[in-house]
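testing teh design pipeline on a random one, pls ignore if ur not involved
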């Protein structure tokens, strides 16, 4: 969506060089905050299960699922709250408080081994609080939306998403480096601190959070510009530099378009959460991989997709100037649809069936007859020392006996396409959403958008554990394709409404769609 200014009396108003530098320094602090938020989620994700088993042997795979989901639940609750806060008070306040909560939560995680009992619940609380602190994502995106002009918005949102993706990529890398400390590590008895491969990553995250708080106080400044880049006043300044009154804020937000974008964003994150979650059980069932191989190979694939995503974020910044955000979002959804359509089982060859241990009507250990453990909880599990893990598609999943296997070439092709389509949809959703809202305070709206994304990440694993386990990949991927098709129809219906606030009210002209 490329825009040009209409002739006006205010067109000669320019931004001073000092203001420009201060504004972009603050935006870079927001990039760092976004990076640290994603690192806080991913830096322990591979070690949660062995650490949980170590501190509390009563914890099972189902509880691990709750521990992982607690992050998204905390973020979903906190995002609207921090969004409201940022609309009426200086944004430094919710940013500092949320980061301080994350720091405290990481310290709590490092001490969950200390209590004599119920250790698993302390870990659950710690991860939920880390997620609660990550609710500042809504504040970050609302600030960036308010501190950039329309011509800067797509690039800034792409950079934000890239920092988030890099955080998800580097988190496991940091975790891998800390494994050199070992499981025992060193103990500081004076303060009951065990510094080992499980606690060092979160303490490192706490240190980064403290640095972030210092930078927010030292460097971050409140800035707000209108869609044309002119500095304007805001309640967030609280005595700091102010600008001209924002006359462009007059007018109503198109709430139909806002609801539609929330739905589209939910779908985008939901299908990607399903994609992430289903990787391990799918490859174990189809290719007879052990848990160790599935986690290892899928970890490599997800890392490559992460690098691919960062590249895509950079490319769409330039591409959007030629084609516009709406067309790119449409193309991204189509690519995701093709990616999941490729995953549908074809042919006649069946996957290898897991017959091992089916003796005297016993049930394989991978799936209980009374309870289906979400497969997302299998990631990071340790192999039994006797290496007796059964492999193949469990016979207790009845679809294994009549559903054709998904070939490895299908799986890799799908990974590439979904890894291309998802980042395109992600950054275009944020960009279009922020432009819809215009110069009005966006904290609450961004809070709801972030909450819808968190809800999607909670429901994705539930979908996998129920639909995939009971009905198989044909039903699971068919339903996903149906959901994406519905989202494409919704996009078509609201396509003409997805225009910038200033364009809608005739203050700027739209050159490309």
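output:
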């Amino acid at each position: 969506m490329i825009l040009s200014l209409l002739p006006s009396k205010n067109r000669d108003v320019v931004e001073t060089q000092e203001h420009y530098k201060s504004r972009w320094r603050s935006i870079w602090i927001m990039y760092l905050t976004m990076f640290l938020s994603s690192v806080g989620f991913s830096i322990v994700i591979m070690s949660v299960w062995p650490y949980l088993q170590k501190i509390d042997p009563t914890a099972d795979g189902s509880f691990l699922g709750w521990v992982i989901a607690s992050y998204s639940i905390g973020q979903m609750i906190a995002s609207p709250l921090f969004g409201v806060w940022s609309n009426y008070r200086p944004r430094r306040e919710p940013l500092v408080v949320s980061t301080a909560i994350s720091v405290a939560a990481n310290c709590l995680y490092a001490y969950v081994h200390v209590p004599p009992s119920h250790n698993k619940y302390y870990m659950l609380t710690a991860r939920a609080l880390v997620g609660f602190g990550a609710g500042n994502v809504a504040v970050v995106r609302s600030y960036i939306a308010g501190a950039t002009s329309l011509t800067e918005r797509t690039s800034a949102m792409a950079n934000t998403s890239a920092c988030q993706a890099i955080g998800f990529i580097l988190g496991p890398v940091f975790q891998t480096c800390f494994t050199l400390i070992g499981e025992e590590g060193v103990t500081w008895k004076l303060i009951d601190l065990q510094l080992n491969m499980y606690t060092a990553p979160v303490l490192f995250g706490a240190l980064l959070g403290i640095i972030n708080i210092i930078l927010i106080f030292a460097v971050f400044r409140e800035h707000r510009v209108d869609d044309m880049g002119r500095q304007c006043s805001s309640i967030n300044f609280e005595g700091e530099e102010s600008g001209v009154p924002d006359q462009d804020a007059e007018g109503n937000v198109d709430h139909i378009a806002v609801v539609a974008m929330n739905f589209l964003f939910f779908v985008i994150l939901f299908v990607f959460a399903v994609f992430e979650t289903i990787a391990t059980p799918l490859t174990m069932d189809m290719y007879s991989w052990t848990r160790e191989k599935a986690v290892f190979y899928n970890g490599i694939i997800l890392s490559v997709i992460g690098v691919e995503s960062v590249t895509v974020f950079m490319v769409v910044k330039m591409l959007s100037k030629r084609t516009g955000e709406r067309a790119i979002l449409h193309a991204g959804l189509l690519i995701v649809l093709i990616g999941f359509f490729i995953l549908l089982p074809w042919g006649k060859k069946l996957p290898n069936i897991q017959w091992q241990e089916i003796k005297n009507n016993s049930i394989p250990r991978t799936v209980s007859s009374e309870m289906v453990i979400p497969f997302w909880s299998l990631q990071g599990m340790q192999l039994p020392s006797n290496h007796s893990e059964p492999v193949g598609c469990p016979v207790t999943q009845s679809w294994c006996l009549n559903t054709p296997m998904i070939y490895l070439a299908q799986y890799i092709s799908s990974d590439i396409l979904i890894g291309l389509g998802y980042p395109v949809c992600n950054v275009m959703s944020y960009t279009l959403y922020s432009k819809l809202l215009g110069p009005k305070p966006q904290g609450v709206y961004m809070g709801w958008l972030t909450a819808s994304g968190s809800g999607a990440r909670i429901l994705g694993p539930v979908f996998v554990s129920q639909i995939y386990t009971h009905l198989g990949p044909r039903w699971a991927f068919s339903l996903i394709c149906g959901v994406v098709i519905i989202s494409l129809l919704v996009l078509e219906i609201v396509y003409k409404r997805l225009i910038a606030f200033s364009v809608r009210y005739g203050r700027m002209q739209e050159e490309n769609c």
